[in-house]
C-alpha cells in the first residue's frame, strides 16, 4: 500500500529528538509511527527493538493490523506492541525484586475487585500495603511500581533505553499520572514518539483517576519536544462527510452536514419498537455497505452501557418485523467488559467442575465463585456508576448464606443457589466436547433471574473452536481425568494471559460493544444506539455543553470508514444547536 508522505510526516520520520504527533481520528498517527519504525529498523543492533505502548487492547490490535500492512515479517520481529500494563508487568516480573527483595505476584483485576469491595478503609493505602508487605501488586499499581523501580535503579532504566532506542506512546492523552511517571523516566534515556488527540480523551474523571485534560501541556513543559500537527488530515473516511459530522457533534454547533453517509432512525417506544428498529438499522447498514462494494462488511453496533448492549444482542438473535418485512436474526460478536466477563467465566467454569464431578469441594467452590462474581459486579457498579450495586450486594449475601449452609451440612433454602444446583442436575450428561459442555452449563445460569448477569457477561468468553487456547486446555482436562476439575483455574490463566498480551480478534461481521471499547478500532459501518430509559447520548448530570458526551460520540461516529446510522428515541435531545 502506498502512503502519502508529506514534508511534516518526513520530518517526524527523520527526527532524532522526542516528537509529539497530534491529529484527529483517521489522520494517520499510527501509520506515521510505523513508517518511522520502518525507517529506524535497519539501524537497530542485535537485541534492540522498538517498544510501541498503547493504553487499550483495542488499540494494540489496531496497531498490529497496521503493522501487517506496513512492515515485513522480519521487520515485525523488531517491534514490540504492548499495553502499558503488559510492559509494566514484564518489568515488574523480572526486576520487581529490587523493590522489596521478594518476587512480585500479580493480582488480577477480578481478585482485586473482590478484595476491594470487602475492604473497609482506604483502598489506595491498602493496595500499597499489599505491594510492600506481601509482594502482591494490583493492576492499578503496575505503572507507579515501575516508576519507583526506574527511580531506584538507574541501571535498569538505562538498560531499557539501550534495549529500546525508540519508545512510541499511543493515545497519550489517555495516560494517567502513574503512566506518565515512568514514561517521563524513559524520556531521559531513549527517544520517544507521542501520539495524541486531545478530543479523543474519553477516560477522564471517574473512569480512570489521574487522566488529565492538560496531559499534553504537562508533557510539553517537562520535555523538549518537536510537535507536528496532522489535524487537517483524514484518511479513514476521506471521501465522506463522516468526520465533519462527528466534528459538528463535538462542537455542538449546527448545522450538521447533509450527507447520505450518516442516517438517523428514530423510534417511539422502548421494547418491541426499539428492538425492531435497531435490528432493521443493523440489517440496513450491512445492506448499504454491500451495495457500496464491501463483500464482507464490518459493522460496529455501539451504545454507552453494557445493559443496552445486552438488550441489542438479545434483539439481534430473533426475527423482527419492520417496515412490513421480516428481518432474520443477525449473527454477531460482543466485546464485553473483560473483568466482569472473566469472573462470570470463572463462575461457569466452576459449575462445569461441579457438574462433571459433584462433591462437597466442587459444590462449595461453585457457590464461592458465583459470590466472587457478585462482589466484582458490586465493585464495578460502585466504581463506574452503573445501577445495581445494592442488588449485587444482596446476591453476595445470598451466596454467602448458601456457603454457610454447606459448611454446616444443612440443605439449601429456596433461591438462586438451589435453583442453579437443580438446573445443573437436570441438564444432560456432559460429553467431553468443551464447546458443547460449556454451552450446556452456561444455559443452567439462565434458570434464575439472579444469575442472568453471569449468563450474559460470560458471553464474551470465547469457546468457539476446539483449537482455542481455552477449549484445548479444557479438552486436556477431560482427556486426562474424565472430568473438568481445574477448569476455573485454567480459564483464569488463559484470560489473564490474553488480557496482558492485548489479544483481541480482528473485528469480523457485526460486533457489539460500548463506545468506550470501540476506541482505536475501525469499521466499514457504525450503528450508534441511544436507549430510551438508559444509555443516553447526553448524560443528565453533565454541564449543558455536554463536552464529555460529545467527545465520546465523536469517537463512536468516527470509527466508520463509510456509513453510520444513529438510532435514537424520537424525543431525544438534538445533536447540535441549529
Ligand atoms: N499517509 C497516509 N497515506 C495514505 N493512507 C493513510 C496514511 N495514513 C493513514 N492512512 C490510512 O488511514 C486510515 C487511518 O490511519 P491511522 O489508523 O494511522 O489513523 P489514526 O490517526 O491513528 O486514527 P485514530 O486516532 O482514529 O485511531 C488507515 O486505513 C490508514 O491505512
From TrEMBL:
<keyword id="KW-0067">ATP-binding</keyword>
<feature type="binding site">
    <location>
        <begin position="23"/>
        <end position="30"/>
    </location>
    <ligand>
        <name>ATP</name>
    </ligand>
</feature>
<dbReference type="InterPro" id="IPR027417">
    <property type="entry name" value="P-loop_NTPase"/>
</dbReference>
<dbReference type="InterPro" id="IPR014016">
    <property type="entry name" value="UvrD-like_ATP-bd"/>
</dbReference>
<dbReference type="InterPro" id="IPR000212">
    <property type="entry name" value="DNA_helicase_UvrD/REP"/>
</dbReference>
<protein>
    <recommendedName>
        <fullName>DNA 3'-5' helicase II</fullName>
    </recommendedName>
</protein>
<dbReference type="GO" id="GO:0043138">
    <property type="term" value="F:3'-5' DNA helicase activity"/>
</dbReference>
<dbReference type="GO" id="GO:0003677">
    <property type="term" value="F:DNA binding"/>
</dbReference>
<keyword id="KW-0347">Helicase</keyword>
<dbReference type="GO" id="GO:0000725">
    <property type="term" value="P:recombinational repair"/>
</dbReference>
<feature type="domain" description="UvrD-like helicase ATP-binding">
    <location>
        <begin position="2"/>
        <end position="238"/>
    </location>
</feature>
<dbReference type="InterPro" id="IPR027785">
    <property type="entry name" value="UvrD-like_helicase_C"/>
</dbReference>
<dbReference type="Pfam" id="PF13538">
    <property type="entry name" value="UvrD_C_2"/>
</dbReference>
<dbReference type="Pfam" id="PF00580">
    <property type="entry name" value="UvrD-helicase"/>
</dbReference>
<dbReference type="GO" id="GO:0005524">
    <property type="term" value="F:ATP binding"/>
</dbReference>
<dbReference type="GO" id="GO:0016887">
    <property type="term" value="F:ATP hydrolysis activity"/>
</dbReference>
<keyword id="KW-0378">Hydrolase</keyword>
<dbReference type="InterPro" id="IPR003593">
    <property type="entry name" value="AAA+_ATPase"/>
</dbReference>
<keyword id="KW-0547">Nucleotide-binding</keyword>
